[in-house]
Amino acid sequence: MKRTIVTIVLILFLHSFASAGQSVRLMKAKPVYLTGIANQLEFTVAAAGDSDLALSLNLPSGQTKKLPLKPDTDRPGIYRSQPVTFGSVGQARIAAADGAVIANLRVIPAWLSILPPILAIILALITRQVLISLLAGIWLGATFIYGYNPFAGFLYTLTEYVGKAPADEERIAILIFSLTLGGMVGVISRSGGTQGIVEKLSTFASNAKRGQFVTWLMGVIIFFDDYANTLIVGNTMRPLTDRLKISREKLSYLVDSTAAPVANIAIISTWIGYELSLINDAFQSIGVNDNAYITFFKTIPYNFYPLFTLAFGLFIALSGRDMFSMLRAERRAQKGKPLRDGAVPLADLNAGDLQTKQGAPLRWYNALVPVAVVIGATLVGLWFTGLNNLSIPQDELSRYSFVRYVSAVVGASDSFAVLMWAAFGGSIVAIVMAIGQRILTLNESMNAWVSGVRAMVMAALILTMA
């Protein structure tokens, strides 16, 4: 009997000792933390007593400081710390009031974080092999994370980073969207739609300067998503810029200078939800009770990078002024070589099975209609998924202006799912149009679609590595 009582008391004692530390858990712990960078730590708290929230942080320098937690008003059971900055490298420890260890944090020098991208860029310039360069950058970063062990870094590069990169559903959606849109472009090219667009645009874009302006303008018009912008504008304008003897380097620059910048400042885009969430998080961390959307709108004039990039892209297109490597590329293109010797395009849509079928009519609408379906389906999908996901009370929505209401809806949308739906819809329309006009058979259409997907594999691999 005495032994039983002692056992029960011991179990209760151990349980109470363990629960003090286990009632609080660190969420989304990073493998390493950088010196000089502020981090807001988030915790789940099973029992929100005062003792549970009285945490301490033992810094690598040996100093111990209090780590008070505040509840997240939007997520019950989640508590946030004030921003924490580590001043020295080593091991930091978060402990409960009773001394139980909640988490150990490894801190490394912040300057190490710039070495992986520098290595990747230098290797890309030297070897001109993007995949190898990206893999080397990932390996160096993994080496820093896993105790500066290069062998462990190599193994975890394959299993934890490259292997698990597509595991996130949003990343899978981006890959599927890119590959599917490549398939649609394959059908459009094979059925003569791409050449039809070239013939139609050539009536206005009769020289290199006008061709560059049309490319820039197309990039601004497709403002709702940077991925869609890059794939649609790049693939649509490439045959025209080749005909006008504009280098692929200039085409890439014009597409890049419009895709992300215009999506970044557009008040209706797939970026808006993420941008508003960043502003909201920052406001919560410093205790400011302002409206995130109004703040975003007011900061657009101060968003200098996208504004200057768009303006500079337009200036380059209209002025025709080039220098250094771009000047050499443009002079090469004027000699009929849009690609440099030895260049390996990320998407090879010039293969024989993607060339316009012999005898196919060059009808511009065979390209424009599928692209319009992608754009229209994206906008409609963003609207309806946003309405379905919107969590703002109706009485508050009634006070919104029209533009703010639309932005709130688009910000709540499931953009990744919508892009997949739009790409498949565009592919189906392109195939149906090619078969319906007896330009391609079903087998020829599917072969062209698969060839278009295959042409995007290199780009998909680079997305995975990046």
Automatic annotation (TrEMBL):
RNA-binding recorded as keyword: no
Pfam families: Na_H_antiporter (PF03553)
Entry-linked InterPro entries: Na/H_Antiport_NhaC-like_C
Record-annotated membrane-spanning stretches: 108-126, 131-151, 171-188, 253-274, 304-324, 364-385, 405-435, 447-465
Positions of the Na+/H+ antiporter NhaC-like C-terminal domain: 268-466
Membrane topology: Multi-pass membrane protein
Compartments where found: Cell membrane
Record GO cellular component, one term: plasma membrane
Lineage top rank: taxon: Bacteria
Swiss-Prot/TrEMBL keywords: Cell membrane, Membrane, Transmembrane, Transmembrane helix
Coiled-coil regions, chain positions: none
Protein name: Na+/H+ antiporter NhaC family protein
Organism: Caldithrix abyssi
